[in-house]
Structure formats: structure tokens, C-alpha cells
Amino acid sequence: MKKGIPLFLLSLLFISPGCKQTKEVVNEYNIVPLPNQMIPQEGRFELSSKVKVVTTACTPEVKTIADSLVERIALTSGIRLSQTDQANSSAPTITFAMNPQLPAEGYELSVKPSGIILSASQPNGFFYGVQSLYQLLPPAVYGRTKDKKAAWSVPAVEIQDAPRFPYRGLMLDVCRHFSELDYIYKFIDQLAAHKMNTFHWHLTDDQGWRIEIKKYPKLTEIGSKRKETLVDYYYTNWPQIFDGKEHGGYYTQEQIKAVVAYAASKYITVIPEIEMPGHAVAAIASYPELSCTPDTTYDVTGTWGVFDQVFCPKEETFAFLEGVLDEVVDLFPSSYIHIGGDECPKTAWKNCDHCQTLIRTLGLKDDTTPNAVDGKKHTKEEKLQSYVITRMEKYLNSKGRNIIGWDEILEGGLAPNATVMSWRGVEGGITAAKAGHNAIMTPNPYVYLDHYQEDPEFAPTTIGGYNTLKKTYSYNPVPDDADELVKKHIIGLQGNIWNEYMQNDERRDYQTFPRAIAIAETGWTENRNKNWNSFCQRMVEEFERMDIMQVKACRNFFDVNINTHVEPGSGVLNVVLESFYPNADIRYTTDGSEPTEQSERYTQPFALTGQLDLKAAVFNKDKRLGKVSSKSLYGNLISGKRFTTTPAMGWATGDAVNEYDVLGADSTTLGLTNGKRGNNASYAPWTSFGMSDTCDELEFIVNMEKPTKISKVVFGSLFNPAYRILPAGGASVEVSNDGVQYREVAASTFARQFPPKGRKAYTDSLSFQPTEAQFVKVKIQNGGTLRNGIDCRKDTPGEIIHADLYIDEIEIY
Description:
Layout: E1 38-46, E2 52-54, H1 60-77, E3 82-84, E4 93-98, E5 107-112, E6 115-120, H2 123-136, E7 153-161, E8 167-173, H3 181-193, E9 198-202, E10 204-205, E11 208-209, H4 218-221, E12 225-226, E13 247-248, H5 253-265, E14 269-276, H6 281-286, H7 315-331, E15 336-340, H8 347-350, H9 353-362, H10 380-398, E16 402-406, E17 419-422, H11 427-434, E18 439-441, E19 451-452, E20 464-466, H12 469-474, H13 484-489, E21 490-497, H14 505-512, H15 515-524, H16 532-548, E22 561-566, E23 573-578, E24 585-589, E25 600-601, E26 606-607, E27 611-620, E28 623-624, E29 629-634, E30 643-646, E31 666-667, E32 687-689, E33 697-719, E34 730-736, E35 743-749, E36 760-781, E37 785-787, E38 800-802, E39 805-812
Parallel strand pairs: 2-3, 2-4, 4-6, 8-9, 8-21, 9-14, 14-15, 15-16, 16-17, 17-18, 18-21, 19-20
Antiparallel strand pairs: 1-7, 5-6, 5-7, 10-11, 12-13, 22-23, 23-26, 24-25, 24-27, 27-28, 27-29, 30-31, 30-33, 32-39, 33-36, 33-39, 34-35, 34-36, 37-38
């Protein structure tokens, strides 16, 4: 390839208008994912009815791609391009040219004022080149009606492009909440527009069986329906509350064939997922004989989580699974079949006479030394899972297919030809790659699109986490310093859309986009060419396209994210305002009033001093772009200071730690002193502390760095018995000048009036006579004991446990 200008400068590049252009027209290149080689040129190619589309020597499949370009331009611009197999030098042309030297998914696109040449070696290369051509045209090209006001021309450019990874996908869970066919087609359109080539369709789970299997009709007669669905977040109400409404749906085999064919027309492979041996409640509800307790009947569950009811590895179960896969293989021509393999509790197997007999027959034993593949010791039941996976792999291999499984398939020994989908961080994928197995990276939290992407206090309820567009974009599936075996065997990445809290299409769009587009760029664009500022610049027009395609994306891109941060060594807690909108003009107020274009302009971080009722928004040409972001901040004497805790800061939820990267007991990170108070909206940013018989209070110690006069301590604690959390029962404050000898200056117990259900944040304070101290120790007692707790699926009324503490913020005045 010829050497072009550095790609990170493209976001700043404006080419002077060429001939026939008005002053307002400039050349912009808002292509996502970013091509790996792009050289801007001057001038533009004008579309008109004089333009001919030339497909000399092209295959019928490539001519069909050219036809789709002609049809789309006619639909949206009213311009009818004429098609021909013969080039005419006197007319402007769009030429499709075969070039066998180009890689399979690669293409070259040369746009000059006199004509366009699109070259590729394979039909999918031509298809991807057309997608880039669409993104060089006005966003109206994605519409369904004519827009004659748009500037129907293409900026001149030279592009040579091919993807970084061969596997670039998104997974859609349709089990927790069913997606109608219209949405499936729309979803595929979005994958295609962003050069993704895999649709992973999660079709079976505990909450619903969504694929018609003619040999086993009860799977859809019974397994596709649940009588009701959980209301609110999983750990909000105890007892849990349900909506009392039946939820169901499945895809017939004819519908599936149509979806597969439609996806194939856009060079997308559909990979079905049939979960085994866990996540099997819907199947077991349909056919109880598949479980370890065949005399028990089960309902398709309407709540979320991991369930002990799993497939029993007996011959009738294997016959069932093989029968299901026979029909699945006939429906899906993909070389891969996903068999799940994740989150399979071994409780049923441990208590099952058949399973224990099978374990002995197979000679399976608990490891006494670490496994050679992953360096861990595995139980005989985990090895039984490996037996199940390996047996099903051999069956699918006999059908000419290979399996993909979640990274738990590493446990007990990896099936010989399996590809690992690494979701529990990156370790599983790296381990598999080092062992010579292909791996697809899909790690939590980077590409988990069910996580929060904006402040949980204002965002719709999600499963947890905190994973912004910027964080998703930052992910690099193969570190630059990875060894060659890892680079060879990590074949791509995937984003995951788990649907527990996405009850409708609008919620699915909101959670998926725009972060899925960041994943698309990571999969296509070489890491050395990725650039966050360039991506943001191009995303402005991408939002216009999504609006036209009626994709209800999250609009946090246009909002202000309010954060706090301590620069290492500064000792100062700063307020940081950030918007992803390029060159954002951020205006803010600190008194609770609405920001306007005349409000204070944010230029750099500023120290948090005192209490601020901060509101901020992005303005462009005196117009507010997004919503007004607001946050109360509480600057005090220990804002951003180092502290220690006993016990160590721990967490029972993922979203208790991700936003602030809490590191542990001796932490210099923000955590409890970041100026933000916890709220009722979610478990972020609360910090959890596990309580037990030997530890029933939190001890927090902060060094004020010099003797300082203090008179008040304020802290927040959380109530949520559904998650074994009670607010503080009492607290005390001790002071010291040497950090060794302390004296108590305040103590109190707290009387509470608890709400009947849900979460509630409590703020408590202890005031005392002004006293000078360099070290302050705050002891916070847990709220006592309760029954049940974190595992709301089990009814254990006699089990008494210590409530945990969730604390945020600790302030000293």
C-alpha cells in the first residue's frame, strides 16, 4: 500500500472545494469503521442520471451488489443510474473491477471527479466497499424516501482497506426478552452497515426456548412461554415482585431460514447458540426427564441468574441434544455452532447417583495438581462437564461443524477442536490461544452492552457495571506485546447484548448503540490506526445516520459526564467535565441554575471546594446539544485523600467497583472520598464491605496530612435486604495526632424507619466540639442480622446472616 497521511489527522482535515462546488461544501470522511489506508483528495464526484455503473467481467453476485447500490441511490435521491457491462469513456462511471490480488474481505475505492472505481477479489469485499461509499454520501442515503435537497456527491479519496480480524460480531439474547422479526432484520442491517460479519443468536436459556424443533414440539409449546417476569432490578425487592403477564415467542424454522438467507445476502454468518449443559430450565420444563430429578416438574423461570437445574448427562439426554442439533445444523450453514457451556452449577450432578456412577466409570477424579491448560485444579464434576462438551463436539464434528463455547469449557480440559469465547475477562481467551485453540474476545466489561454507559442515577436500569463508549473503544483484543501464538489464535471480538433489562426494541437500541460501533471499529481497524478523537469526529454524522435508520441510540455522546479525579501527587480533588462531542463547548453552573450559552465555559479541571450543585451542558452555535447533566458534589477536608479500611473494600456486585477502579484496603483511588454521594438508583458508586461473626464493623482511617480542626463526620449507607444490605447501626469517631493513640470524640446509634421494599440511601452525621487532629478513625457498625440474603432464589427462613455494609460518601468538616 502507498503511504498516506497519518489517520489520526483525518478528523481535522477539510479539503478545499474542487470545481463545481459551493463554498459550503467541504470534503469530510466520516467512515466507521475507519479504513486502514485513506488518502483524501480534492474535488468531488457528482451523481446524476448520466452516471453509468459498469460491471464488466463481474460475477452475477457482484452484479447484484451493484444493483443494490443503484436501487438505494434511486430510492433516496431520485437519481437513476444506468447499468452496463461496457465502459463508455465519455460518461462518468462507477466501475466494479475484479482484482484477485486483494484479500478476501478487502477492497480498494478510488473516487475522482471523473469517476469511481471499486475493486475487490471477492463479493464480500465489494459489499464492504459499497458500505464505505454509502458513508461518503449524505446520511439521507440510509432513508426510505427521496431527499432532493441533499448534496448527492462523493468526496474524492483513495482507500485501500481490509479488516484486522476475520471474526467481527454481536450477540443478541432473545431468551430473556423476545425480539420480533422486524427487529432482527434491523439488527442485521446495523451489523452490515458497520462491516461486521457475524450474528451470534442466543436462542435457548432458562427464560425461554426460542427455536422450533419439530422432533420435540414441547420445547416451543411449553418452553417458549413463561407465566410472568421479574419487575425491577434483581436485588431490589425481597420477596421478588413479578408482573403477572405471560411472556413468550419463538421463531419457526421457515422464519429462521429467511433470517439466515437475509444475513447471508449481507455477508453475515448467523451462529446459533443452543445452551448446554447449564441454562437448561426451559428445556427441562418441557421435558423433565432430561434433568437429574425426572419426577419433579419445573416452570420456565421469569427471573434471572444461574440455576441448579441442568441437563443430566445420561443417554436419553444425549439423544435429545443430538436430535436438536440435527435440526439446528440443517437450519444454519455456519461452520460454527455455539453450545454455551457457561455457568453450569454442579450441585445436581453431585447429588445424582447416575452422575456419580458415570464419573467413576469414566475414571474422573479431582485434580491434585494444576491442569496443564489453564493452571487450575478441577473437580471431577468439572471434568464431567468436559466429557459432555467433548462428546457434543465430536457429534458436531461428524456433521462437519465445529463448536464455540464460553470460556468455562476450559474447565476440566478443553475439547480438542473447540473455539473459546472469552467473557470472564481476557484470561480465558489468552489461555486458549496459548494452548493452540482459536479464541474470540468478548470480555466483561469492555464489550458487555448490558452495562450502564452513563450515570446510573439517571439512566434506565441495567444489569450493572459502568462501561462508557470511551471505555469500549479503548479495548484492544490483542496486546501489542502478545506472543505470536496469541496473535495467531485470537481471531476476533464480539459485543454481547444480554436482555434481562431490555424489555423492548427501544431499550435494545439504547444499550447497543453507539457502543456496538466502537466494537465494529476495533474489529476492523488496526490498533495503530485507531484514534479516539477521530472516532468522535466521525460519530457526529453517524448519529445522523442512526436517526434516519430509526435506531434509538443512547445520546450520552452529546451530554456532559461529571467526574472527579486526583492527579497523582497533587492531593487535590478536581472536578472534571467531559463530553464525547468533538471540541465540545461545555457550559456549567455551580448553584443549581440551568446552564446557558452565557454560563461559565469549562476549559480545564478545577478544585472541588465546598458543596456544589453542578449542572452542565454542551452548546454548539448557541444551541444546546444534549440534556443538562447535574450532580451534587461535596467538597470537604478529606476529598480525594488516601485512606485505609478494615476489612478491605470488597464487592458483591460488578457495578460497585468499575466506575472508580477501587483497588483494595490500602487505596489511593477515590472510592469513598470522591465527592459524590451514593444514591438509590443503583449499586454504583457504593463500596461494599463484607460482615461476619468475626467482623461486624468497618474501620476507616484517613491521614489529614497535618493537624486540622474538625467538628463533623458525614457518611452514607445503603438499605436493601434483598441484597443482604442494612444501613449502619451506629458509628463513632476517634482522633489522633500520631496515628497510634486515639481518643473518641463522638459516638451514636441510629434508629431507622425502613421502607417496605426497594433500596434507600441514608445519610448520617456525628457532630462534636471542634478538635484538632491529623488522623481520623471512623468506625461504622453493621446494621445487624437478617434472614436469607443474597441468594433470593432459595427460601431458607432459618438461615441468619450478618448484613453487609455499603458505604458512600465519607466526609469530614
